[in-house]
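Thread title: Can someone regenerate the structure for this chain?

I was given the following input by a collaborator and told the matching structure tokens would be attached. They weren't. Posting the sequence so someone can regenerate them.
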Amino acid sequence: PKVGLKQREQVGSGGDHHAEPFQARREVFGRNTLPEAHAVTFLQLLIAAYNDRTLIMLTIASVVSLAVGVYDDLLGSHKNDEVKVGWVEGAAISLAVIVVCFTNAINDYQKEKQFQKLNAKKEDRTVKTLRDGNEVEIGVQEINVGDILLIEPGDIIPVDGVYLSGHNMTCDESSATGESDAIKKGLATDGRDPFILSGAKVLEGVGTMVVVAVGPRSFYGKIMMAMRQGQASETPLQRKLDVLAEQIAKYGMSAAILLLMTLTIKYL
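Best answer:
Regenerated them for you:
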């Protein structure tokens, strides 16, 4: 614990040499990075934006209007007119639907890209560890199982570990466990909790810990992977807006059918 890992560890457990440092260790325990999440394509966002009852209703209305307008221009009462404008209304509705879909899709795509950049920025930080008995700073992605991390107040623990030594260390694990009470860390022989979970924030005290789990195998990593597999729940406002949009679509469709029946009866 006083020395830590070798800075250029290249020998595996079987005695075989590797070109990359810590390669054998990472093949067994993994790297401290999460697999890249499945990126949503622009086409998927465009389809999601169009999957709205109001837009679908407007699309049907535009097709009907366009068909009636073209028929009226070619074979109807306006076939002798010099300027054919019967198609304008249906085309305008179709253009409006296209503009709305592309605007929503582009906006969502830009927000998705910004979210990915923010996530990458959040993980771009360093921690202090012992290598060959010396204190060095490394990126959180370079942490390996077996590393000795030096912990200070304000640190957010990026991996799971076991307490080795320190003084008056207290951690806030509310982001991981939901418990709002601060937890004092120490040796199990002293009756304290020796396990330090990833995602916890050090409130006070200093100490050292040995890394026991990284990446998707850590507590925080398992939570993040589970969140990726689950579907995002809608907010109450989104549910209310969906109900309102559905009601508007129903009333609009009813009014359109009533108007169609009235005009049909009138011209018959």
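The first strand starts at residue 126 and ends at 131.
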